[in-house]
UniProtKB/TrEMBL annotation, chains A, B:
It comes from Sinanaerobacter chloroacetimidivorans. This is Nicotinate phosphoribosyltransferase. Belongs to the NAPRTase family. Its EC number is 6.3.4.21. The lineage of its organism: Bacteria, Bacillati, Bacillota, Clostridia, Peptostreptococcales. It catalyses: 5-phospho-alpha-D-ribose 1-diphosphate + nicotinate + ATP + H2O = nicotinate beta-D-ribonucleotide + ADP + phosphate + diphosphate.
Length: 476, 476
């Protein structure tokens, strides 16, 4: 039920001080455009994966200030009664566009744009960033791990090390979008249809007088799918021999062993040989000890005999880089129907934002269907298929590139129209399939874990010229 | 409202398969003892801080399987109807002991012990670990950052980069326990009394025709406490001069500036000089750009003029080490009122657990009130004050130590008695004060960020002898 709680007050306090400020100065209904984008791909990877949009939509669709919220805010002694009344009658009225979940995304692209009364478009910053940052982080990490596993299944096993309940459940959802085959978390299946699995802990084995009895009892209760944890005492001398004995006696329909400690390359090779020798070639081997994409890559190279992986803390916290740094910046104002582009100027060129109401096109090669480049354009622009088209590096003046033999796809879809949700999230399975298909359109060089090729995210001529005109104006 | 949701199904699926297994084999009511403990202090620190107990209690107090849960489980096709009926009538019946929140804790100590029917004591593993791991992680990290700030205030600013809503809100709660002075998260104040603060984003400044107008408008609305964000355009050439002008014109009761980018040592020295020269010595300087304990320590050493820090992603995700590795292990069974100690044997000596029903005493020096050592004992043992007392290293046979001139304090308190909560959490302010006072009992050498002195966590003679007897038995 995590997704249906009212999270309206899950916001940075400054959203409220600013909202009250806009209300008091009569600026509430000034129309503003805000973009959400990120600057850096976690783990030095070549792309990230968009996720969290469904939760963002739920938040926005349920924005409501209850009496308890109003009382709390009144108690702060800094908000006008008029503003509190406005909040009591709050009705979301913004337009929202976003890149759907499962899409490979790149730095600088407007993942989400909100257009509407500044009092509202500013207010939704925190929850929007929270939802998209968290799930994009985990989906991106999960996909790295899944790709390292080269077709072997990866289960998300991290609930106990997650950062709170939504860290666990939304994390499991994002991990599934990124390509995991399931999760250990029951709530993620009940509420988000992520397949949940799990068999036994070491304590189950310890509860019985001996390992054989523990295994035999389990096999008698779960004859359909019997995965035995073989490392409570000693994998080679005790766990595997007892498992083999029980499998032969009980003949479960599906059988597997899980190893949760020790040197998995050595142990799985040994285990595979023992199982095969016993005629149990169909018995699968699951490994679940401090895995991530690097360790998985290494043990596969070393010839470890593993059918699937359980990945815990290093996935659910994205341990090697636990932050997805999405930001939310003002891109424009609208006065009398005319958009006045805004941008943040910085000494650091990478922190200069792109001005105006924008969208993103992905250009695909007509022959190979591979993605060639993304182009950020002003929203009113279109890109005719096939014709020669020139794209411009956001920072470096002399870097431009002509593309031909392509077709273009606008990556963004409308999500809210004047506060009304006009988008229906696909099923989680559809999102996961879409994600896989989209990653298949990326060149292999972009998929490297280290030093990937940097994918082109360029600007259209019109946006490039607007940006450089504004920079020149600012310098004067 | 995050804390009142029913989280019963926020559990690893294997807790359910094992529960059904115990039910089917008639072992449900076998009495088991489980300990939660951790093995490694995050960031190589000298101690961690216990947190999350209040949320753990809420979870346990609200354990209930609803129709929706039962239907979901029935749909899995692997659970007996008898078991589902048991869940429908589930009533928590365990005894629970724990170390209160805010206490400095060390590896190997039983932070929580659960005694009760194995079907229940096993089931609560996941949510218990989730609650304690998450908040202990953040409280520990926050305390490092707070200590680095040497008396300057530290605000938690990380909501937008947290791992989900409970990552943000429970994280803000834990950060406050660890010594932060407040949070940016409004929901954390509404629900957990963590003081929330916040003023403006860059977009506020950009919404106006110029910076001066943006500042002046803000000061007119918030004359009591006016903190201006001075780095939207240029801190030295524009932000500070405009802030000074507005402060002089508007004379807010409290005034401050915030710098969110750039070289904070250089900028804050320059800003301080400009403010002082303008006669605004009382204007405070807040800095909020990618801070953590190391950067804070460095900029203070370099003489940066900072009155308080806002710390975002590196605190709320504990970026440098985002995992607190608490585990939950079987420590004993009870048959006919007699406890049969259990332990997990491992080739890796650090993974060998301590057997039996245990507690933890902290021994304080009678003269200085400083903590000398912790001793894990069997629960029935007592430690008479002052008398000479010998403690034993858990692994190394020849390492033992005699303590005298001390008084002993049992760190644990009863939390549940046969399923009934018998503990009332202190207020968050009390927990925070308690935490600070307890850290003051630690020797300075333990407080170092790198290479701290390793605090003694030894065993009583009785527990040591029991442990080694079991190891000998196992080896035979």
């Amino acid at each position: 039920m995590i997704e249906h709680i009212n999270m309206t007050m899950l916001t940075d306090f400054y959203e409220l001080t600013m909202a009250n400020g806009y209300f008091e100065t009569g600026m509430s209904n000034d129309i503003a455009y805000f973009d959400m984008f990120f600057r850096k791909i976690p783990d030095g990877g070549g792309f990230a994966i968009a996720a969290g949009l469904e939760q963002m939509i739920n938040y926005l669709d349920n924005l409501k200030f209850y009496d308890r919220d109003i009382e709390y805010l009144r108690g702060k002694g800094m908000f006008s009664e008029g503003f509190l009344e406005y909040l009591r009658n709050f009705k979301f009225e913004c337009d929202v566009w976003a890149i759907p979940e499962g899409t490979p995304i790149f730095p600088g692209e407007p993942l989400v744009t909100v257009r509407g009364p500044v009092i509202q478009a500013q207010f939704v910053e925190t929850i929007m960033l929270l939802a998209i940052n968290h799930q994009s982080l985990i989906a991106t990490k999960a996909n790295r791990i899944v790709r390292a596993a080269k077709g072997r299944g990866v289960m998300e096993f991290g609930t106990r090390r997650a950062h709170g309940g939504s860290g666990a459940v939304h994390g499991a959802r994002a991990a599934y979008i990124g390509g995991c085959i399931g999760t250990a978390c029951a709530l993620a299946e009940r509420d988000f249809d992520v397949p949940a699995l799990g068999t036994m802990a070491h304590s189950w084995v310890q509860m019985f007088d001996n390992e054989y009895e523990a295994f035999k009892t389990y096999a008698s209760i779960y004859p359909e799918n019997c995965v035995l944890l073989v490392d409570t005492y000693n994998v080679i001398r005790s766990g595997i021999p007892n498992a083999i004995k029980v499998f032969k006696e009980m003949k479960p329909a599906k059988m597997g062993i899980r190893i949760d400690s020790g040197d998995v390359t050595y142990l799985t090779k040994k285990a595979r040989a023992m199982l095969d020798k016993a005629g149990l070639k169909e018995c699968s081997i699951v490994v679940s000890n401090s895995m991530d994409e690097y360790i998985i890559r290494d043990v596969i190279v070393q010839g470890a005999c593993i059918d699937s992986f359980g990945v815990g803390e290093r996935l659910i916290t994205s341990k090697s880089e636990p932050v997805f740094g999405g930001v939310y910046k003002l891109a424009g104002l609208e006065k009398d129907g005319v958009i006045i582009p805004k941008m943040k100027i910085s000494e650091n060129v990478e922190k200069i934002t792109n001005p105006g109401f924008k969208t993103v096109y992905r250009l695909f090669d007509k022959d190979s269907d591979k993605a060639i480049a993304d182009v950020i354009t002003l929203d009113h622009e279109s890109i005719p298929d096939g014709s020669e088209y020139e794209i411009f590096d956001p920072q470096i003046v002399w870097k431009r590139k002509k593309i031909s033999n392509f077709y273009a796809k606008n990556l963004r879809v409308p999500i809210f129209d004047k506060g009304v949700c006009v988008y229906k999230s696909p099923s989680i399975g559809e999102i996961r399939d879409y994600c896989k298909a989209q990653i298949d359109t990326l060149w292999e060089e972009i998929l490297r874990f280290e030093n990937p090729h940097e994918y082109y995210v360029d600007l259209s001529k019109e946006l490039w010229e607007l940006k450089h005109k504004l920079i020149e104006e600012y310098k004067e």
